[in-house]
């Protein structure tokens, strides 16, 4: 593998990539969110990379890499290893350029991502139970079949393509103080930092990783935080940071911060509710950093990259429901009552009069410490928020029932 000192990504490489990508990828909007600005205490500008055709910034690096292949490499075709956005970016632009594309995906890759990648004309090979096993198999296939391996982040041409995000952001919002960027292998932040620091040497670049996958954070900060096994931000769940990208991050990135799963979930729900835009876990990492570290960014003009929007619908449904619980809009209460005819009707009528809607009802007769002939009734309610939950409980107590929040 080439060492970082052997390959440098220069601002001119990113300018050249921007010319190469013109008309091939979307110049996505970068606009202020006044509501998020009010809620976070800083001025928030969002770069909507989730609007790309494959719903991710990964198209930029893939397109820049493939566009520079020579005639021999084009004839041989390309291979990549990815369980998500990189796969789709490579497959789509290979199809557009008329190249053979083989994508190796781990066996655990969701079927919807496999089929979407096949839909872009790629040959999908399912191999291995880990990303490392899939990557090793892709390398073997590249050697056996003479295919060009397209790394998801540790490649100068990939990095240069990703850096075009910063060119567009600073062209549209030249007065940004800080860029907050999700970090997995480091391709996006290293490209953006190279471009942004060349235009505005004083701009602050902050990387965000999840507490469950802090590989780059550990490498840069010298910490030894443990690595988890899963995260809802699977797009940045990278166990081994890139060598090229790590060298650039050490040189140009000002700080790295960590966020937890709850911060990311909250950010996904806020972007959906406030901005009416759908992002995956990695795409919400920047906003999650503002929520977790508000004093760190207070009063600044902050640019966030919504780097991807590919999220499993069932995961999204779960995140929305959990978000409603955190906001008090979905609440679970217990009402203790005499187990006599008509009492349940009185309870539901009282809840309805208080303006709440009942989602679920559970009678608990056996597994309760209440006296015989009494019943514990668990209700899951849709409410307007925590204050409304309190009002519902008060109305039940006024009606003579023992009621409490679970």
Structure commentary:
45% of the residues lie in helices and 19% in strands. It is an alpha/beta fold. The strands form three sheets. The protein has a six-stranded mixed sheet with strand order 1-2-10-7-8-9. The longest helix is centred in the middle third of the chain and has 17 residues, at 156-172.
* CATH fold-level assignment of the largest domain: Rossmann fold
Q: Helical proportion?
A: 40-55%
Radius of gyration: 25 Å
Neighbour order of strands in the largest sheet: 1-2-10-7-8-9
> What general form does the structure show?
elongated
Unreliable stretches, pLDDT < 50, 5 or more residues?
1-5
Counting DSSP E segments of at least 2 residues, the number of strands comes to 14
CATH architecture name of the largest domain: 3-Layer(aba) Sandwich
β-strand amount: 15-25%
What class, by secondary structure content? alpha/beta
Distance between the termini: 56 Å
Number of domains: 3
What oligomeric state do the depicted chains represent?
Answer: single chain
CATH class of the largest domain: Alpha Beta
Question: Which descriptors apply to this entry?
Answer:
14 strands; 17 helices; single chain; about 400 residues; six-stranded mixed sheet; alpha/beta; Rossmann fold; disordered N terminus; elongated; four-stranded parallel sheet; Alpha-Beta Plaits
């Amino acid at each position: 593998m080439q060492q970082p000192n052997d390959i440098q990504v220069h601002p001119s490489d990113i300018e050249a990539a921007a010319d190469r990508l013109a008309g091939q990828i979307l110049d996505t909007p970068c606009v202020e969110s006044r509501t998020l600005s009010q809620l976070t205490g800083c001025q928030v500008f969002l770069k909507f990379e989730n609007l790309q055709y494959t719903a991710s910034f990964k198209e930029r690096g893939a397109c820049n890499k493939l566009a520079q292949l020579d005639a021999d490499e084009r004839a041989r075709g390309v291979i990549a290893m990815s369980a998500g956005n990189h796969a789709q970016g490579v497959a789509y632009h290979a199809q557009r350029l008329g190249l053979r594309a083989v994508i190796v995906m781990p066996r655990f890759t969701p079927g919807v991502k496999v089929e979407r990648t096949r839909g872009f004309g790629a040959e999908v090979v399912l191999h291995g139970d880990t990303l490392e096993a899939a990557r090793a198999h892709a390398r073997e296939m590249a050697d056996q079949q003479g295919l060009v391996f397209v790394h998801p982040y540790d490649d100068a041409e990939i990095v240069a393509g990703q850096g075009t995000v910063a060119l567009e952001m600073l062209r549209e919002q030249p007065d940004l103080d800080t860029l907050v960027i999700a970090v997995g292998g480091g391709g996006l932040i290293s490209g953006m930092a190279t471009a942004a620091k060349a235009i505005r040497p004083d701009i602050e670049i902050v990387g965000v990783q999840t507490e469950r996958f802090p590989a780059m954070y550990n490498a840069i900060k010298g910490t030894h935080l443990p690595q988890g096994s899963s995260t809802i931000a699977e797009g940045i769940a990278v166990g081994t940071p890139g060598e090229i990208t790590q060298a650039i991050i050490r040189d140009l990135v000002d700080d790295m911060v960590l966020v937890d799963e709850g911060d990311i979930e909250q950010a996904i729900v806020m972007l959906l509710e406030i901005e009416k835009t759908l992002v995956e876990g990695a795409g919400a990492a920047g906003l999650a950093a503002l929520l977790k570290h508000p004093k760190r960014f207070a009063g600044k003009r902050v640019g966030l990259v919504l780097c991807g929007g590919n999220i499993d619908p069932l995961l999204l449904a779960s995140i929305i429901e959990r978000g409603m619980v955190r906001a008090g809009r979905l609440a679970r209460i217990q009402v203790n009552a005499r187990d006599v005819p008509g009492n349940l009707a009185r309870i539901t009528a009282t809840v309805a009069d208080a303006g709440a809607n009942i989602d679920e009802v559970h009678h608990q007769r056996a597994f309760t410490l209440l006296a015989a002939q009494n019943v514990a009734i668990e209700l899951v309610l849709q409410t307007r928020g925590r204050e409304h939950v309190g009002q519902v409980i008060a109305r039940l107590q006024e009606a003579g029932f023992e009621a409490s929040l679970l």
